[in-house]
Write the structure tokens for this entry.
Amino acid sequence: MPRAVRERQMLDAAVRIFGQRGYRAASMDEIAELAGVSKPLVYLYLNSKEELFSACIRREAGALVDAVRDGVSAAAGEPADRQLRDGLRAFFTHTAERPDGWAVLHSQARTQGEPFAALVAAMREEMLAYVTSLIATAAREAHGDPSLPDREVAGLARALVGAAESLADWANEEESVSAREAASTLMNFAWVGLGGLVEGR
């Protein structure tokens, strides 16, 4: 079997075990068994439990960022608020479809210290910069204020990302909550904040 395919199997198994059992409780024996390989082969490919967990974080972070960007790109040419809404919907769809990956990023990596927390922080900063740009563009379009600087929406972007993380946990616990509903809830929150921001200038 090609190395890339074998590694993907190992990472799939590791994300599932880490996401459901937690980093400290997870064992390399469990991961190897679920992946259908020997434990020495896991160590041969990924060296240690720490490196395996780091690889899981990098993969899941990259997949989440790509999903959001793809959601926004699918609405290219539409108003910025529509792009933001579609990006949020893509975020909630992704976290619902990959709950173990989301648990690795949001529940596990951030609580295990360095270097894991730093990997998630880097992903989060990339997402914040992207969301800040989308919100600023949406505000300029909606309120006809091309001079609105990114700095003035930075706080709102942080609130939006934090709220999205919290809502993703809630939506994954409540099966009746769809990605569309979660995105609409957050957009309503964001639009109220944008209105207050512009009025206060």
